Amino acid sequence: MASSDPYRPATGYPFVPNGMHYPPPPAGSAYPYHVPPPHQPTNPYSYNNQTYPNQRAIFLRRLIVALLIFTGIFFIILFIFWLVIRPHFPEFRVTSLSISNFNVSSSSSSVTGTWKARFQVSNPNKKMKISYDEIKTSLFYKSELLSQTVVPPFKQGKRNVSNFDVEYGATSSYIGGRTVSQINSDEGRGLVSFNLRIVADAALKVEGFWPRRRLLRVYCNDVEVGISGNGGSGNLTGGATRCSVYA
């Protein structure tokens, strides 16, 4: 006789709680409970399909990064050096210009005369010396070349001011009828302007570094000379003339 105690442990299979009954599965149906997937056996001889990084690509990336860092450091050092040194071009001035035996011939369209000029050169740099080599200078009336000559080389120390003299000469140099007319017109008012040019191969030297060479071009425009009617002589008027320097 079966016991009616609901708290009695169930025996047998399957257990139906509280008297609930489920219909049996139809004949030929699959197992009604969840079945785990079949176990895949592990092949002890299979290799791990892990991909390893390309060593050459890693080396190239590291090399490029190192080059970029080195280039950046180099330019930073160069910029700091420029701030410390801060090089400046020398300053040129014409402090004196005289003329003698000045004569312009209308018949032969030529000019004769002797010019003596004094240039003042200032090196404003605190840590840089300058050497001037192969110095060539020319004298013009407007764009007409009157004379040219060569100046001996010289050197300048730091914060140095130097002077050098130049003598130009022309003897019956052909200048053309138009230039003759313009000079005669200027002489009539007692004032003739000349242009002076200097081209110098200069070496800029900072201690501890290789010298840097620059081709300096100096333009001294509209240097006015007051000319008297007797003897064709005259001197600079208006004080020193500052020149423009290009490299």
From TrEMBL:
Q: Where in the cell is it found?
A: Membrane
UniProt keywords, alphabetically: Membrane, Transmembrane, Transmembrane helix
The question of whether Transmembrane helix is a record keyword is answered with: yes
**Main location group:** membrane
User: What residues form the membrane-spanning segments?
Assistant: 63-85
The domain of life for this entry's organism is Eukaryota
* Keyword Membrane (UniProt): yes
The membrane topology term of the UniProt record is: Single-pass membrane protein
Q: Which residues form the Late embryogenesis abundant protein LEA-2 subgroup domain?
A: 119-210
What is the name attached to this protein's record? Late embryogenesis abundant protein LEA-2 subgroup domain-containing protein
Q: Which organism is it from?
A: Salix suchowensis
